[in-house]
Amino acid sequence: MGKEVEALFEDVHVHAELAHVLQQEGRWAEALHHARRVVALAPRGSVLHLWGYAKAATIAADMGRGQLAHRFATVYLALARGASGVEQYTPWVQQAMGIACYQRGRFQEAIAWYRRAVQGFARCGLTEQVAVASSMLAFNLARIGRPQRARACLADRSEFPESRSYLYDSAMTAIHMAEGDHELAVSSGRRALTASGRRSFDFADAAAVALLVSRALRALGARREATAFILSAARFAVRQRWEVLAPLLPNRGQRGGDMAREAAVSRGRGSAHPRDGASLCPGCG
C-alpha cells in the first residue's frame, strides 16, 4: 500500500511539473489538462490539491476563459480558508479572479480583486509581482475613466522586472487614453509593443494595447495606421491561443467605439511552483 501511495504522489508531481512548464510555454490546453489531473489525484485539502486549483485558475485566465477561471478560483478560495502552507498561492488566485471578472465585464469587482492581489504580493515580499499586479489595477482604473487614481496605484517603472517593464508602458497607454492625450498614448503604446522578450502570457496584454493605440490613431486621423494596429492585435491574440476572438471586435458601448473589454486585460501570469513548497518560482509572472 505504501508503494502505491508513493507512486500516486510521483504521478501527481509529474502532472504538476507539466502544468507549470506548459503554462510558461503558452500551451494552455495541455497545461490545464495537467492542472486538472493534479486536482483529481492529490488528497483533498492538501497543499498540492489547492495548488492544482490555483494553477488551473491562472491557466484559464491566460486562455481568456473568464468563467472557468472564476470557477477554479472560487473553489480554491473556499478551500484555502484556514488552510496552512498556501498563503503565497492566494495572491496569484486573486489576480486570476481579477482577470476573470474583467473578462466578464465586472470592472469594479476586477479592481477590488487586483487590490487584494497587490496587497497579498506585498505581504509575501514579492516586490516585482506587486509592480506587475499594479499595472493590471492601473490599466483597469484607467479603462473606467479614473486615470488619476490609476497613476497613484501604478508602481514606478524601476520596480518592474526589467524583462517586463513593457507592462508599465501598457498601463500608461490606458492612462493617457483616459486623459485624452492621444499622442502620448501612441508613444507609450508603441514602446510597450516594441519591447523585446515579451512573455507568452503577455500576448493578450499586447493585443489590448494595440487596440488602444488603434483608437488613439483614429482620433488623430491616422486611420490606415489604426487599421494596421487592429490587425496586430489579432495576431497577438492568436499567438495567445485565446479560445474566443470576439474581444477583437469593436464595442458599441457608451464610450464611443471603445474596443471590447475582454481584450483589455493586462497579464502577469504564473503561480507557485509545485516543488518549491510555499515559495514561488522566480520569474513565474
Automatic annotation (TrEMBL):
The cross-references to InterPro entries, in alphabetical order and at most eight, read: TPR-like_helical_dom_sf (IPR011990), TPR_rpt (IPR019734)
Specify where the region named Disordered lies, as residue ranges. 266-285
Q: Which domain of life is it from?
A: Bacteria
Q: What Pfam families does UniProt report for this protein, alphabetically?
A: TPR_12 (PF13424)
Q: What is this protein called?
A: MalT-like TPR region domain-containing protein
